[in-house]
Amino acid sequence: MISNGVIQKTLILGGIILLLISAMILPVSASNENYLVFYMVGSDLESGEYHHASSNLKDLADNWNSDMGDVLVIYGGADKTGWNNGLAITNMELLKKDLEDGVVGSDGDHQTPTEYVLTRIADLDISSSGALSEGLQYAESYSTENDLASANRYLIFWNHGGGYEGFGANELLDTWMSVEDLQDGLAVSKPYDIIIFDACLMASLEVADALQPYAEFLLASEENVPGDGLNYAGIGKALSSDPSMTPEEFGRNTISSFISVQDGEDKTLSLVRLQKTQAVVSSLNLLGISLKESLNDGDSLAALGEIYTTAQGYGRSDDGSAVTSIDLYQFADLIYENTEEDTTLHTSAGSLLTALNDYVVAADYSGYFSAANGVSIAAPNAAFTKDIPHSIAFGRNGWYEYFSTYMNKAGTQSQPSALYRSGNAESRSIVVNDPAETTRVFADYLYFNDSNYIIIGQTPLQETYASSDDDLWISVPTGEYEEPDWDGSWFVLHDEGKNADVLATMTYAYSYTENGSVNNVYLIYGSMTREINGMEKTLPSVITAVIDMTAMKTTDMFVESVSEDGWDSRTNLWGDTTILSGDVFTPLLEIYNEEEDSVSTADSMDSFTFGDDPTEELICTALDENNCYWVVELDDYLDDDEFYLEEPDFPENDTAKSPISVIGILFGLCIPCLLMKRR
Fold first, then answer.
1. Do residues 292 and 259 both lie within one domain?
2. DSSP three-state, residue 313
3. Strand partners, 270
4. What are the CA-CA distances from residue 546 to residues 208, 369, 402, 553, 580 (Å)?
5. Which of the chain's ends, N or C, has fewer CB atoms near its CB within 10 Å?
């Protein structure tokens, strides 16, 4: 006979097992409430014509159901009423009232600060760790007072971003928060489920390493973010339809809603698990130890230089030749694929790839990228030859030891030079002396017209590779390039109804491969005139053209206005990127002066009026071969210097010349990112 005690114990044990099974099956963090905290540094993004912060908040408010939680907005840092004195703090209920006039911060005539705020904290610099601390402390008190302790917690940093350089441009005081400032400000707060950056370049390992104690996930972009920012209407609708979604589900949904908006923009967004950050950093440090040891070998400097110039870059410099960061997964993968299997370097690169696969929860992109795997790392920079910033040192362990050694070796190499290797005209090659492989080598195509050598385009030259002698690298670049084989065919703006084609300078930006075909992305600077409401409007602009280099055909074209105010103000004043029928474009031409060793710019005397399909109007055609020449351009991305080697048939041909002083550079060449970007 079974005793009652045994029966009770059996029932208790069965109940425990049932609870354990239920815990394994049921999703975690399934709260029906959500608490979104915005830290909005308005800057020119809000004070400019498009009021992006107000627009984003209105999109969220219009789709917000009060039953699913609350929103707290901490804002300031813009030269605009209500944003121009310390911190203003509001919630969703008051925000909806404030937005009745369409903008946040003011009421009625937009000259009076809004009354719809919870509080104002005057005389604080919003782009400081102290202001961030005060704002987040208020957010904690608000959470407690409004019974939001069990809600899913999302902290959204909104403004310009610079990756390892920091976040938040206060245009009132010209200040900026470093990554260390972000750390200090977050230290007073309870952890969030997700820290979100609606800002450029913040999906870097440096940022994640600094912020890992303060959230479970990080949601950010490797690349620049358009001025319109994340899809806040999509965020509001998603939470309204499923307020109990987990933070991971929320992160994945935010990625898909952002990327799915077809606005013609190049975009990336990724969700990473911050608790896995330390494993990635540890693997990175082990890779750094192996890389530093490899630098004793003569082939490694060249192999790594080639990898750095090949890896997908983000946050391009003014002329597109340098980048802020590179895709970390692709960097490790290029090392892994080009090293012998039995080497420590190969093994450590593979270990980093494994750690990254465990770290990145979701990543997606739209546009033209060779890689967008969800996490970036600082790219080599000439400034790093003097000092490695604390924000990219990762505790000054293995990676720091490698990167500082690499920068010292690569950054102190003599300037590159080039010459022709002796041989007959059919087998001549170009030899570039650049041991660090930090030089990109192009063929610049020139067309002689009206006594000027107009640079009409450029293509990267193909380097030859050889087996390595050190049993480490499978192959290494040789510094030898095939001589350009240009037949005089290139792209012009062509209208069937006109007799003359219009020449334009097409500046190479980068390449990517799609369906086995190499595509080059080119920038064409100039000015665009468009008729709007019966009035003509002319703006400095840049056309981006995507060229299928196999078919020699234009597959995509779009236009963006170029601000004369620099990177800090990047609104696309055309509204979107579509080139409209009737748009008139006047190219800005680059002109090579063989006597003065200089490049100047001049507006073309010819303009082009677009029709219904611009991709059918930028066509490849055979030019007069008697007027076609080429020069080899050596572009040192560390020193940002350029050198030329003229073709043998060029008048007064010579070896590579001294750095070119670019004369007459105007608005266009100083602006890399075009649309208003969050950088």
1. no
2. strand
3. 220, 363
4. 33, 12, 37, 9, 17
5. N
